[in-house]
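Changelog entry: the Homoserine O-succinyltransferase record was regenerated in this release. Current contents:
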Amino acid sequence: MPAEPATVISLPQAAAPAAPRRPSDLTEQRGTRRVAFAPKYGGEPVEADVRYLWCGAPDAPTVIVQGGISADRDVCSGRERAAGWWDTLVAEGAAIDLSTCRVLSIDWLVPEDIGGVASVSSEDQAAALAALVDELGIGRVQAFVGSSYGAMVGLAFAARHPGKLKSLVLLAGAHRPHPLSTAQRSVQRGIVRLGLASGRTGEALALARQLAMTTYRGSEEFSRRFAAGPEWRDGRFHFPVEDYLEHAGRRFVERFDPERFLALSESIDLHDVAPEDISAPTTLVGFPSDRLVPLADLCELQRRLGGTATLEVLDSPYGHDAFLKETVQLAPVLRQALNDCYGVPKP
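Regenerated structure tokens:
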């Protein structure tokens, strides 16, 4: 694909009404860089076009921020977007403070981006980020903040490129997938493959997303939101949870394609990093209601990490999606973890 030119933007005084105010001295690059690395399942080195966002205070330390498989590079609001997927936590004055750091984020790579290899790995995403860090002249990032799949890539980055980061902050992600979670994702991928084979791709992708939503959210939330009885509609009973799931499926189909879903879902289940290989100081964040990444896995990760590690446990009814929903609880945890990385004394 042709390279997207990087744009350097001096952000205006006024941002979108719902977003925090961003001063004019914050800068933004949103573009594409071509990088080279050897994919795990490809053998020979390849070149890949990495779509990235790099924004914040000029000349400030860089913090990588990556989310789940459906997240993109637009982690925060900016001139070309009214909102980012985590802009409550990534903004001027927020926990990840754009007035004191620069945030770097990429769109996840899929096999067609890296020469059509059979599968893409978390190590490939980490290699692309490491090469991008070099291309941008960053050298070493202050921290890697990763959530869900982003946490897995953060671990791969720390294991394979230890000289390129100072610390890790990992939310709802571990060194390996839990087998039950792999089973659930395997069924989702089977649904999508059946849809591709039968010509009912959109329906299949929507149904896979509906199933995924039952694993992302917690039992307590579903019990609270969908306790009402069924309603007779269109010749059958409809349960309250169905409208929610169908809406989530439709929205996903509008912004995601099946091949991308299959590749990134599989990449989660291929992930396997030895914690002992990681020496960077690490802050782990987990949620007891998270059934995809059980706390027991994070406790094992904490015990086995080669460097110092702390585990913050936050109660939430939102399950795995708590890293998106619990911004008030997460803000002080992220702020303190980054302050520790910067060497700021605790109050």
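Confidence is low (pLDDT under 50) at residues 5-23.
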